[in-house]
Write a structure and sequence with these properties.
single chain; about 375 residues; alpha+beta; Gyrase A, domain 2; Alpha-Beta Plaits; Elongation Factor Tu (Ef-tu), domain 3; 6-stranded mixed beta sheet; 6-stranded antiparallel barrel; 21 strands; about 20% helix
Length: about 375
């Protein structure tokens, strides 16, 4: 394994439990612990836990922290005012509307917010926020929480397993996207995830997280790797930054229009003018879902064709869905192709029929597009 890859506090734990390791966004992470399918089904049917310590928490605080984030983020954190601990999903945009990152922001106090950034973009995100603060002379301080790891526990039984371990019975009644500070702020528990299932993401010191992982494992809860996380997130219609969207794509062209809040006409934010202009025009392409047959497995980069053979788009993420028992994908398609229409996907030297659908493919324990 490349020595330049970063490792998480769980690295030795992964090796001790038989993980097959792989490179991801500059980190050495567990791909699986023997069977991606078993790990996937464990999360769908009961619970599983993931090391997601490659995701980077960043605390932003100061008198102008709110002003900075209202400008930097497309969603409006004013929605979090007077709601300590509440979180919000948002995109962060360039002036031209291109997506710099997608992230979650939590409101900790009147002058403090916690962001959870993608691994591949964390450094440039911090530099970007610092440049905005410097340009506007905003009084803001930044604290990357490099001392913390993140453990995600996901699945229908996740909350019932985690609540007694943390001594927080009320966790099961906690609304989604709510965060809780525990143990004098040595743990932060967020009702979030990336699997389409219920659960939490626990941010905290390596010692506490390793103890929680050991306790879960002792109860028979399966650790899961990046492969299962990818199949779970794709079934849930959740995008992967740098693959399904990036700086060349706007939220409206990425099935993320709901992350942009234009309701306050007085709030200026990076990319607002570009988004408003785009919404007064015509979208020439859009991100949609594809459902294929049991035997057709689409992959990133495969061509999508109209029924007459014309190339109309490209698969951004694709795989065999363990829950649906068939191939599924996200794909960028030219207008006017969209849900309810038919297409084809070129897989090697063959073409396979596909239905264009609106993601997600799986919701609340059920397949939306079953065989």
């Amino acid at each position: 394994m490349n020595e330049l890859l970063r490792t998480t506090p769980f690295h030795d734990w992964h090796l001790a439990h038989g993980a097959r390791m792989a490179a991801f966004a500059g980190w050495e992470m567990p791909l699986h612990y023997g069977s991606q399918l078993q790990e996937h089904h464990a999360v769908r049917q009961a619970a599983g836990f993931f090391d997601v310590s490659h995701m980077r928490p960043l605390d932003v605080w100061g008198p102008d922290a709110r002003a900075l984030l209202r400008y930097a983020l497309a969603n409006d954190i004013a929605r979090l005012d007077d709601r300590p601990g509440k979180g919000l999903y948002s995109t962060m945009l360039r002036n031209d509307g291109g997506i710099l990152d997608d992230l979650i922001v939590f409101h900790l106090s009147s002058e403090c917010y916690r962001l959870v950034l993608n691994a591949a973009t964390a450094v440039q995100d911090l530099e970007y926020l610092q440049s905005l603060a410097h340009l506007q002379l905003w009084q803001v301080r930044f604290l990357p929480r490099d001392d913390w790891g993140i453990l995600a526990v996901q699945g229908p039984r996740a909350l019932s397993l985690v609540s007694p371990l943390l001594g927080v019975p009320a966790l099961q009644n906690c609304p989604r996207f709510q965060g809780l500070e525990l143990e004098f702020s040595s743990l932060f528990v967020a009702r979030t995830g990336y699997t389409g299932e219920d659960g939490v993401e626990i941010l905290g010191t390596p010692e506490r997280l390793l103890a929680i992982a050991d306790a879960l494992h002792a109860q028979g809860v399966a650790p899961a790797g990046l492969a299962a996380r990818d199949s779970l997130r794709l079934e849930a219609g959740l995008l992967l930054y740098g693959q399904d969207m990036g700086p060349a794509d706007s939220p409206d062209r990425s099935h993320l229009a709901w992350t942009v809040d234009l309701r306050d006409p007085k709030r200026d934010f990076s990319g607002r003018a570009a988004i408003a202009k785009e919404r007064h025009g015509i979208l020439h392409q859009q991100l949609w879902g594809l459902v294929l047959s049991r035997h057709a497995i689409p992959r990133t980069g495969y061509e999508v064709l109209a029924e007459d053979g014309q190339i109309i788009g490209t698969v951004t993420s694709g795989l065999f869905s363990p829950s649906l028992g068939r191939g599924i994908a996200l794909a960028r398609l030219a207008a006017p192709y969209g849900p309810g229409m038919s297409a084809q996907v070129r897989i090697r030297h063959q073409v396979f029929p596909a239905s264009i659908v609106e993601p997600p493919f799986w919701r609340q324990g059920k397949a939306i597009y079953p065989l």
